Amino acid sequence: MKDLLKPTSEMLVGLIFVCVFMISSLAVAEPLSNPQDSLNRIKNSHSNLIHFQEKPTLGQLQLANETITFPWASRKTSIPLPKQIKFIMPHPSPSNEEILMNQSHSEVRLTDLSAVNTVKQRDLIYEDPHDGDPENLGLTNDLHIGIIGSENEPKNERPDKMAEDSGIEQLVDNAFDSAIGENAVGGKKFSYLGTESARNYLDIEVSGISTKAINTVKGGSAIATSNIIIKPVQVIVCSPEVEEKLK
Amino acid sequence: MAFGYVDPFATATNNLEIKKNQNSGECDCCPVTEENSESCHDCCIKVNYEDIKVGDRTAMAFGFATATNNIKIVTNQE
Predict the structure, then answer these.
(1) What value of ipTM does the predicted structure carry?
(2) C-alpha span between A241 and B15 (Å, rounded)
(3) Interface contact A121, partner B, CB < 8 A
(4) Domain ranges, ordered by start, for chain B
C-alpha cells in the first residue's frame, strides 16, 4: 500500500512546486506588462542621453537610489576663455627690420607691412654720398633710387590704355625725357641739357608703400611703423687739373 | 584709414617730408681780368637735376592699433 501511495505523493509535491513557480513568475512580470510604462522608460533614458551632452556629468554613475562619484570626476576639462583666445588668435613676436641701401643697391621692392596683434617696424635707409663718377673725370653724379611697394605691381594693361591714363604729368615727363638722352651702356638717363660741364642727376621714386595694423583682442594692441629715410648727397668739386682742361 | 571697434583708438598716419638743397654755385676758376674778360668763362657750369616722385601710400589701423607710414627725403646736390 505504501509503495502505491509514494508516486502519488511525489506527483502532488511536484504539482505544488510548479504552481508556486508560475504564481511567482506572474507576480514579477506584472509591472512590465503595461506597455505605456515601458515606453516612458525608454523616453526617459533617451532624454537622459541628450541632457548628458548638454550637461556633462563625467565621472558620475547614476543609479536608481544613489549617485556614485569616481575620483577623477573633479578633474576640470574646460580651459579658461583667455587661454582659448590665445590659441585662436595669432600672437607673433615683435619684429624690427632694417634695410640699408647704397649706390649698388639702389632699388628695392617692399611687401606690405602688416602687424596683427603685435608690433612691427621696418626702417629703410639710404645714406650714400657721391663725389663724382671717376669714369667721367668726376664731373657727373647719376643716381636712381627706386622703392616700390606691393601696391604698385605691374599690371597687364594694353599700351594704348596706359597712354590714355597717364595724364598730363606723363606727357610732361615724356617731353622732358626726349631732351635727355639714354646712356646706351648703363641704361641710365644721361643728361646733356645745354653746355654744362658737370651735372648732378637724381631720380627718386617711392610708391605703393602699405602699412596695416590690426588688433583683434580686447585689451591688446597692434603697431605697424614703416620708416623710409633717403638722404643722398651729390657733390662735384672741380679739381685744378679738370679746371685746366675745361678752360 | 582707421577703424576702432574695441576701443575708440585706431590711428593711421602718413608722414612725408622732403628737404632739398641744390647748389650750382659759380666757380671762379678763371679769374676775370681786363685781358681775358671775353675769353674767360665759368669753368664749372653745373646742372643739378632732381626728379622725385612719391606715389600712393596706405596706412590702415583696425581696433586698438596704430599704423604709421613715414617717408623722409633729404637731398643735397652741390
Answers:
(1) 0.75
(2) 45
(3) no
(4) 2-77
Q: How far apart, in whole angstroms, are the C-alpha atoms of residue A234 and residue B17?
A: 19
Residue A49 banded pLDDT, cuts 50, 70, 90? very low
SS3 A11: helix
Lookup: cell for A18: 510548479
Strand partners, A119: A223
Give the length of chain B. Answer: 78
Q: Quote the cell numbers at residue A178.
A: 626726349
Q: List the domain boundaries for chain A.
A: 1-51, 94-246
DSSP annotation of B63: S
Contacts of B78 in chain A (CB under 8 A): 200, 234-236
> What residues of chain B lie within 8 A of the CB of A233, using their CB?
75-77
Q: Dihedral sign, CA of A57, A58, A60, A61? A: positive
pTM above 0.95?
Answer: no
CB B30 within 8 A of CB B36: yes
Alpha helices in A67-166 (DSSP H): 81-88, 159-165
Interface of A with B in 125-144 (CB under 8 A): 141
